[in-house]
């Protein structure tokens, strides 16, 4: 009887140790996996921001739909300046600048005197515009793992995860002077890409964000107030 009691006590002690270990490891494992997935989601949102900012540079508004944004990336062209050569210190000190130099070189008959005076030549100095797709222009979007056709979707992390679309929205903020500033946001709720993880830990994470009146997920930009297109992880 005594031996049986000792065995039961030992088993209980082992079970208690195991339970304590598990209770400690659950949040550690949860946070580790969240960090791994967050990194992928953040990169996706950074890519959206890069493309939206290029769109805004050309059209002065942000793309209001995924079709607009993806079509812009695939089919539109943007101008970039191809630079050859630099002005010398002597040329700069004499009052020449890049804009003037390129203006002179584009009309050599009209500005023959200035070209000779400053010693300019298209062979050594050029500022010409070429037109390329945004995917060619931006190195972040030309990397091997970037797929424009997957940009609109929440990254898939677990079997059974729905192929949800990243929430995209635009808006404006009117300044005191009446100027309308275009805004955009792209966001992914935690429940989309963390749904297979520990239910209690995920619930705690969402509640913590909501109690702070913050979005319970990853988000870049804001369609209601200007924030310089910052991500909520920054």
Q: What is the element string, with H for helices and E for strands?
A: HHEHHHEHEEHHE
Radius of gyration: 29 Å
Instruction: Determine the fraction of residues in helical runs and give it as a percent range.
Output: 40-55%
Largest sheet composition: 3 strands, antiparallel
Rounded mean pLDDT is: 87
Shape: elongated
Q: What structural class should be given to the helix and strand makeup?
A: alpha+beta
Q: Indicate the low-confidence ranges by residue numbers.
A: none
What is the CA–CA distance across the termini? 63 Å
State the total count of DSSP E strands. Answer: 5
Number of helices, where a helix is a run of at least 4 consecutive DSSP H or I residues? 8
* Main β-sheet, spatial strand arrangement: 3-4-5
Question: Which strand-content bin applies to the residues?
Answer: 15-25%
What's the quick description here?
The protein has 234 residues and is α+β, with helices and mostly antiparallel strands. The chain has helices at residues 2-59, 66-75, 89-93, 98-106, 112-118, 134-137, 190-193, 199-211; strands spanning 78-84, 126-132, 167-174, 180-189, 217-221. Strand 3 and strand 4 (180-189) form a beta hairpin.
